[in-house]
Amino acid sequence: MRIRGLLLAGLVFVALPSSPAFAHASLQSSTPAANSVLEDGPPAIVLDFDEEIEAPLADIQLFDGDGEPVELGSPREGDDATITTASVPELSDGLYAVIWRVTSADGHVVNGAFSFQVGTTATGDGQDLLDQVRNGVGADRGLTWFYGIARFLALAGAITALGVGWWSLQGRPAIGSRRAVRRAMWVGWGLLAVGSVAAFLGFAAQVQGGTLSRLFDTSTWGDVASTQTGRMLVLRVVLTVVLGVLGWRYSSNAQGWWRGAALAAGLLTIVTFSMSGHPNSLSPRWLWVVVDEVHLGAITLWLGGLMALAFVGREWMTEPEAVRPIERFSLIATVCVPLIVATGVAQTLKLAGGLDDVTATDWGRMLLTKVMVVIALLAMAGVSRWLLRHDGAASIRRTVIAEAVLGLVVVGLAAGMVGQPPRVGVPSRAFEEVITANGVIASVSISPGQVGANEIHILVTPPGGSLTPVSSATARVLLPSAELPAAPVTLVPEGPNHFSGAITFPQAGDWTFELVVQITETDSALLKATVPIP
What we know:
Number of helices: 12
Shape: elongated
Strand order of the largest sheet: 10-11-12-15-14-13-16-17
Largest sheet: 8 strands, antiparallel
Number of strands: 17
Distance between the termini: 56 Å
Low-confidence stretches: 1-23
């Protein structure tokens, strides 16, 4: 009972999610840009992300300055799978807020918001409007936890059912002849079944920004099932049923074709995890999906063997027939462990883009914890191997139990990492300031305010508040601390005293922005501001 309690505690650990995070796809740019000021309303809202998204599931909402919704066209895919767009009706002058939510290629929901203004007359505070309309938009915390727990249960159940199931066929008599082993296999299958069904329900409710009450809202299931993640979740449910039927045949002492069918169904079940997680968003996709499949397959084989030996009982391990399957497990573990380490390192470097910022994310910190537990697990495996050679199979029972518990902890950490973004998001700080000089007032907004490309909008008010158009405006940016040469900013007239353009910041720092306004042919004004780029 004490042994089973330890393993049960490990399974519970696997099921507990870490803090949820949804920053897997990042918004690269938008039309209109955040904080921009437009002469006329845009014909469409266009969102461009840094990875592919599920355009049919995108949700874009527009609110006017009073917080009232403005009806938009249905979101559709843009020029490629990273862009989604929605048509906009004719807008009157005023402040507007955009609330968006998309599902990224790796199945994670991402949301955000920004404001823009139509007309050159200031009409309110964009942040105040965003705070007003964002309340209640997006999935609630209860649904987020439900979906996370469902994913983790499915992963834990798959590794337990498939790993223990494969090893249960080994030996003469087979390891699976022990009742405790069969019970462990069926517990794993139950976790897989419950987790798979719950994951589909949670995913369907979450992508629609709903609550727990929408778990059984069938109106969205068709759209969800047409996406990459949805297809994999449906396939996993079907394969779980198939595995249950094949497992029942095994319990009835059936022989023959069902073994090959069970192996194929098990391999396909592993594929559904790779095809609905981080590897699905990497390039080339097929390569990293295969790497992840090998990683998960080796973990399943290794950890499944540990759990089977932990449940098989000391009496079985003292029998002469037990020596051969235990030695076989030792040999297979010798092959699986290097595979796990090699594929894990490769995925880490690809996902994180190196190890420089590994401690800056929850994903990286969980990775370091996982590495430390793996080191302890490998040390324990070395002890087991030594005992097996010197004292026989029965002597490794306690160390095998310890390995199985540590292995479940590793699986729990790996499952938690699935819900975390592996890279630090690009820091940004939108800049909006009013600067004056020689009676000239200029309202300058730069968004998103990050290293790389940005959009700039300038509204100029000549001396005395005159509406007379100024002759011209030119701008440049420089970074005194880095002794970089001044870079010109190309400004395009958008209307009377309204200019826009593109501005690039090659590195972070406190940049000096200089604006030269030619009021008349003979009068000009130089306006300066410091733009902090994080």
